[in-house]
Amino acid sequence: MIVPNASLSCAHCPGGGAGATAATVTATDAYEEVSGALPPPSLSPTGHLVVAVCLGFIGTFGFLSNFLVLMLFCRYRALRTPMNLLLVSISLSDLLVSVLGTPFSFAASTQGRWLIGRTGCVWYGFVNAFLGIVSLISLAVLSYERYCTMMAPTIADGRDYRSALGGICFSWLYSVAWTVPPLLGWSKYGPEGPGTTCSVDWKTKTPNNISYIVCLFTFCLVLPFGVIVYSYGKLLLAIRQVRSVSSVVTRRREQRVLVMVITMVVCYLVCWLPYGVAALLSTFGPPDLLTPEASITPSLLAKFSTVINPFIYIFMNKQFYRCFRAFLSCSIPERGSTLKTFSRVTKTLRTVRQEKDHQVSAPAPSSALPTPNSASQGSAASHNPPAASNPKPKLILVAHYRE
After folding, report:
1. Do residues 118 and 33 make contact, with C-beta atoms less than 8 angstroms apart?
2. Every domain of the chain and the residues it spans
3. Residue-wise pLDDT tens digits, 349-370
4. Are 182 and 207 in contact (CB under 8 A)?
5. Neighbours of 234 (CB within 10 A)
6. Cα separation of 69 and 61, whole Å?
7. CATH no. of 45-330
8. Per-residue pLDDT tens for 74-120?
9. What is the CA radius of gyration of the chain?
């Protein structure tokens, strides 16, 4: 049931009297319908207006920027690479947040109360939690995929999308596994902050609820963060090892891609870490530890990640940036080196060994020159290799290009 509009702060207005009491009771009934608990201290009308403006900005630019990333990916063939496919998965989840979640919290902030009842609150909390975890797990999968590609003994095939598709399926199914339990009784979804957004119930201090929150924090924030730190730490160490043997152009290109991904991860954690900390404080701290302003700010930062990520893709990824400029000017993208790669620029840590049957080496002074098309002499040479035919393996950073 949607109750009539009433200010949640009228009880503090001068001359509130009986009217203020009635409005407060109405707001209390509305909140109890959603959460079964007393309403928290609400924001002032100005505070709700500021939150509504922020959510309007986040929803509008989040939708437009993520839609642009998806459109560029579909329009330009050069962008259809395994790594970019993982980025598109993140962009798709952010776009869905802008469509399925932000409009409802925006409308609630304009009215100062939740508008679509308990069922809508549960649906909103599930959708936002699900899509947020998809983004974070996708970043962890992206970092691990790049780490595995670099450590592979062979050059990665830019036409092979199996690992990228497997990572995307894993991130979405993993998120489902952690966001469905509150629908089945392990914790629950309910209002958060000033009551204009919904999420996991952070405040109920029961063993059932606390156990879920601890597991959610561990497996959906700490664990992915550990995978990200480990994978990119290994990549940075590998880049330092191969600086002396890889070309300057290759090193710059590879490091630029790495900086882009690391920046994306750091920005995402800056947006989500305050939300995780606020959730833990709500769970384990005193009941009134967080003010309404302190509780709504981390939620806005978390939603702001849907705006940040697409700008990282476009302005830090030269493939996306060139296609973006071509799209604005209605022209063909510049033929830069990054657009000539059918596959993504791949970091591969290879063990380079001199193969006997593919090597052309200078003959020793004491041996006779082999004549062309001489099978017997070739056989003799294969049975008498030079003393230096097994050099120590080198670690080389390889970029894979294909038209």
Report:
1. yes
2. 45-330
3. 444 333 434 444 444 444 444 4
4. no
5. 17
6. 12
7. 1.20.1070.10
8. 999 888 888 889 889 999 999 999 999 999 999 999 998 999 999 99
9. 28
